[in-house]
Amino acid sequence: MVRYRRNFIPGGTYFFTLTLADRRSRLLTDHINALRAAFRSTRQDHPFTIDAIVVLPEHLHVVMTLPDGDANFPKRWRLIKSRFTRAVVASGTPIGSRSDGERALWQRRYWEHTIRDDEDFSRHVDYIHFNPVKHGLVTRIRDWPYSSFHAYVRHNALPEDWAATSATG
User: Fold this and answer.
1) pLDDT class of 167 with cuts at 50, 70, 90
2) Which domains, from first to last, does the chain contain?
3) Is 21 exposed, middle or buried (0-12, 13-18, 19+ CB in 10 A)?
4) Cβ atoms within 10 A of the Cβ of 105, count?
């Protein structure tokens, strides 16, 4: 059996995909304030920068940069996932359990990719911002509210009609 190895680079920039166990779920967007709070409290305890993010109903993508000398992204994800799960359970939303008693909200693993250079960074940020269109949730990127795309527009890094066609722009 192949052992999965994660790439730990202190101060590194990474692309992540995290997915709920139930791919039909809408819990991430239905409980967006709880997710934001989980990110915020984790960032206070263990700083990191969110370079780009999109939250879809059942999965999210993030480009994250860790502080110099720190490569512990697993701890950050463990905290974000557990804080969000606790908030969803506290809201009264039923969440099943696995055979070991662990809540079955999230898939156990997540996808991680170490960003190699500026081109790789740009490609992943573009992927993040286009993702709601790719999944058919909106026809224009600017119409998806749970995306860092709006911050990129506010900071003049992208135009509001970025990636729009004449038919959808």
Assistant:
1) very low
2) 13-120 (3.30.70.1290)
3) middle
4) 22
Query: What average pLDDT does range 28-48 have in this prediction?
Result: 98
Contacts of 163 (CB under 8 A, 6+ apart): 126, 129, 130, 133, 141
4 is catalytic: no
Which residue out of 14, 110, 146, 152 is catalytically annotated?
Answer: 146
Per DSSP, 3 falls in state P
Q: What is the 3-state secondary structure (H, E, C) of 77-127?
A: HHHHHHHHHHHHHHCCCCCCECCCCCECCECCCCEEEECCCHHHHHHHHHH
Alpha-carbon span 90 to 98, nearest angstrom: 18
